[in-house]
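Ops channel
N.P.: pipeline sanity check, posting one input/output pair.
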């Protein structure tokens, strides 16, 4: 089969590698934002398509049998474009995403809709661990009445004021490290997107254990589509739908 995977996640790489091992022709599409991305086996396309119209053109020209949206749960523009383009080209597609996190007993979560609302929820003098990536940090940087720790894989492309500290770290994160960091820096608030999955979930357990408030940014709504929550489930979904190969 000719398979097109929209990536930008570890799961997309694992799925591409597994499908290549099974003998499929796989193309993974990356946005091209990361300077040194981990690359999957198979073909790699880097950069945007110019919206849904460009995507329809790319899909039509390349004769893919199956399309998989394995972008991050917060890459909502791309997920919307993929759903529309597959609809317009009548191509089968499904989503490989991560099961959203749910609050458990003892959690102190404040659910918010977006980054701006998250920054507004912080009280004065809060010590804040911000784990939303490096791209949309401005509302936190503007909170000069708080001490802000921004955790990201790459450094933000802006000069930051003294109340902001950048921690360059890559998942997975261990509970013992999360506990030590939050204790050592007296973190009062944790800000996170509801990305789901295991690799970054330890911070939530640490926050529960320490009584730290969590500001949880809810997922953007997406169009209805079949969804699976693991690479194994994605491979099974493909095996169960052999008509994809037609
Ligand atoms: P987005 O807002 O949903 O997409 C903005 C535009 O970037 C899209 O319209 C598309 O441009 C291009 N694009 C996004 N993903 C692409 C892909 N996989 N291949 C080709 N073009 C892509 O996306 P985002 O939130 O900025 O995320 C960018 C990438 O980083 C995604 O691949 C995502 O999986 C990954 N990522 C995002 C987050 C997050 O929190 N948002 C976290 C970790 C990783 P055109 O319209 O020109 O086609």
């Amino acid at each position: 089969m000719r398979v097109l995977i929209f990536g930008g996640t570890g799961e997309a790489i694992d799925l591409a590698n597994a499908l290549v091992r099974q003998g499929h022709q796989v193309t993974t599409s990356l946005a091209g934002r990361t300077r040194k991305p981990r690359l999957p086996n198979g073909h790699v396309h880097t950069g945007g398509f110019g919206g849904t119209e460009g995507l329809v053109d790319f899909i039509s020209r390349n004769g893919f049998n199956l399309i998989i949206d394995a972008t991050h749960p917060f890459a909502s523009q791309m997920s919307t474009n993929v759903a529309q383009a597959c609809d317009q080209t009548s191509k089968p597609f499904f989503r490989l995403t991560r099961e959203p996190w749910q609050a458990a007993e003892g959690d102190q979560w404040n659910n918010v809709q977006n980054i701006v609302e998250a920054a507004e929820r912080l009280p004065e003098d809060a010590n804040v661990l911000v784990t939303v990536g490096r791209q949309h940090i401005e509302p936190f940087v503007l909170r000069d009445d708080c001490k802000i720790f921004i955790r990201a894989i790459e450094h933000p492309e802006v000069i930051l004021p003294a109340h902001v500290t950048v921690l360059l770290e890559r998942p997975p994160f261990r509970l013992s490290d999360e506990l030590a960091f939050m204790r050592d820096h007296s973190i009062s608030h944790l800000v996170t997107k509801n990305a789901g999955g295991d690799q970054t979930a330890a911070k939530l357990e640490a926050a529960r254990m320490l009584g730290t408030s969590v500001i949880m940014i809810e997922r953007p709504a997406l169009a209805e589509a079949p969804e699976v929550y693991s690479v194994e489930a994605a491979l099974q979904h493909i095996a169960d739908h052999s008509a994809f190969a037609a």
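N.P.: looks fine end to end. The helical segments are 10-21, 51-62, 76-89, 115-120, 138-141, 175-184, 202-210, 231-240.
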